[in-house]
Design a protein that fits this description.
Elements lengths: L1 H6 L3 E2 H9 L6 H13 L3 E6 L2 E6 L3 H14 L5 H13 L1 H17 L2
Antiparallel strand pairs: 1-3, 2-3
Length: 112
Amino acid sequence: MAHLWDAGAPLTVRQVHEQLSGARSLAYTTVMTVLDRLAKKGVVRQERADRAYRYAPVQTREEMTAALMLDALGATPDGPARDAALVHFVGRVGPEGAAALRAALERAGSGS
């Protein structure tokens, strides 16, 4: 996903494979299978370009991270356990993360 987000434009399987080949040895078919599965799950958009498909992320990195965090939080029942999970999370994000959360909560509270 990082390569697709960083590209800024849809990439073919070959382009993704070439970018990944520098870091690890992966078969072309493995990259193709993963991208196809991500497309079927709605994580990436698949578009036909001549004889190849191009893939692009459906969400930004930030949107996907937020969705994953909400999914994890949604797995915790409402009540004290959920509140404790939120407190634990805030305690682990550090001062800069806490400041960003505080600013986001203020913006959400003011309706902007």
